[in-house]
Amino acid sequence: MYRGFNINFSTEALNIDGVYNYGVSVLSKSKKTIEESLEKYILTDKSINGSKMQEDWFPTIKSHIFLSHSHKDERKAIILAGLLNVLLGLDVFIDSLVWGYSDHLLKLIDNEYCLNPDKNSYNYNLRNRSTSHVHMMLATALNKMIDKTECLFFMNTPNSVTTDEVINKTNSQWIYHEITTSQIIRRNIPRRLIRERTRTFSKSIQHYESINALNINYDIDLQHLTDISELELFLWVNFHSIIGKNPEKALDKLYELHPTKSDNILND
Questions:
Q1: pLDDT value at position 206?
Q2: CB 3.0-4.6 Å disulfide test: which of 160, 192, 232, 233 passes with 70?
């Protein structure tokens, strides 16, 4: 990941039915067909091939932007992904594409391995173990996607963050995970920007950590994300939609319009 942006959206923004349908069609090409059987992952010793299961259920997809959002804003996220694709040619990964897989996979595993003898309830200890495995697969997949994409866009809405004075809080463990990961993950500068700015710039040392927590309120630090208003985002999209699809030039202009301190040092 190179840059992250904290985009403040109003609750009324992004209500375009036509673009929503387009966004659905674009994202459907990236969605993995949900597996309905566990048989292909069972090894000869009756254990489960976790690596193969993770690869199939939570595949990494090549995208320019990782879009983090509340599940309540999924429609808006799909519309934004559709706009960025149709106007700028940007491929957007929506995190909820893999959220839904985790619950479905967990249900399959629990029904197969965690039922009590009466078949009407689940064993508490077994259920805890299966949940930890599936959530670790999901967390790892999200980490890989954040690391691979060039940008992270965080849809900051009342559904995703509640503001208590100056402290941002979220009750979504996955938003907390994604924002925290984006704060500590390696900063990977695109090669085209290295060539343009300096040939001697060295890449940052990789810091990678996976965080998984209970579904409670978390304080999230958004200071490492560049603030963008809804208006600024759409002005950027509209300007570059006029000159045609060029994902890399569009992203470069976004960085230029909202530089960081390190960018200013490179440009001096």
A1: 36
A2: 160
